[in-house]
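Appendix B, example 12.
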Amino acid sequence: MPERQDRRERHVPVLLREAMEYLSPRPGGVYVDATFGAGGYARAILDVPETRLFAIDRDPAAIAGGRALAEDHPGRLILLHGRFSDMERLLADHDVTAVDGVVMDLGVSSMQLDEADRGFSFMREGPLDMRMEGEGLSAAQVLNTFREEDIADILKTYGEERRARPLARAIVRRRKERPFTTTFDLVEVAESVLGRPRPGRKHPATRAFQALRIFVNRELEEVARGLLAAERLLKPGGRLVVVSFHSLEDRIVKRFFAARTGRGQAASRRLPHEPEPPAPSFVDVAPGGAAPSQEEVACNPRARSARLRAGERTDAPPIAEVPPLPAVSIGERGGGAGKPPHSRRARKGRGRR
């Protein structure tokens, strides 16, 4: 019981009221919490009588932490370990092929940031890991083995770091002296290039940590594929609610809803020989998106960059087009290990079904 209460106190779900307003869960409905985390959204959905909720998380620690909540709601909360881009298969294993709503809270959870041994936060010293599932390349391996130009490309594309090249140069220079092993190793180099942190401003290492986490976990690809999966799963009238925390995620979500709601597809803009565009598969129910209130940001500073977007599924067929993604082109790594799976060549066609 103390552990369960501790998890509740540490995790404050962002835009909870707005997310539930747009999701609009109804008694007896079937829903998907695609990013379970500490279960903040899940609890709110389960508060609606007789709802059935499938909660997905790629982090095994999150699934383990949710077992007590599942015991409190026997038969109503089903915990699924896996990626939300694979939600169709995960639900099919439970004979579910259509749902009334999907909610996604993208990015890294408060719990992951608070746990030093996960390596997600520049505020706590721990192994420079950042892998949500503990598989594949760690952030330290990327910094210790990738070419300077590849590291710069990752920092610029996924972190939108303006000084990516000098930072990559400093990273390569530092690893020749000793390899990167901890989060503070990267913080030290970032501060040496970008300056010391200043009150009221983002920490200079913020963008580098974001870039590495996104790259290591293929987060943007996961977002795009997850949106497509939700579109296919939702019943007509079902709601999709997505909360993002940085511009790269939000851009993908924004473009997805723009394409699915038919914005910018006026007939006068098409040439005579061009085919009719597909019928809109969503209606935008949160035009322009929603942001947290000043009161919420004051209580939970991590909410300051959040943006919510939401749509209601129509009866039109799903659209196969994949939302455009930022891409990096990675050359050969040190040691002759070859191209990692994040290169444009490996990415080509991925996410289409």
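The radius of gyration is 21 Å. The chain has 16 helices and seven strands.
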